[in-house]
Description:
Elements: E1 10-14, E2 28-31, H1 42-45, H2 54-60, H3 66-82, E3 87-93, H4 100-114, E4 118-122
Parallel strand pairs: 1-3, 1-4, 2-3
Helix pairs in contact: 2-4, 3-4
Amino acid sequence: xxxxxxxxxxxxxxxxxxxxxxxxxxxxxxxxxxxxxxxxxxxxxxxxxxxxxxxxxxxxxxxxxxxxxxxxxxxxxxxxxxxxxxxxxxxxxxxxxxxxxxxxxxxxxxxxxxxxxxxxxxxxxxxxxxxxxxxxx
Length: 137
């Protein structure tokens, strides 16, 4: 299923509990449950569907751990590229699997794509619609 691209290996990002969801095991798992939890922000949860919404991503990006997570993801992707691995998978887990992990996957993907990495995203958000935009209630 995974192919090597001209830019090197593919980085696959998951926004689900990777060991508990039936997903194939990932190479790396990053626990983001200590990040700011958008589920407690009524202004976001009442108008946004999940972490794919830019407002949720902007809010999560202010967490002081954000730079460290992005740096770690870039190092992991770079190591895979350097060793000529066909792909590397990174899972992000949080309490709900709808807000922080989804937002962080989207932000990490943006960061990697700016650095010319080939990125694939998988969101498995139980109980939500597949729309990628926020709907006003």
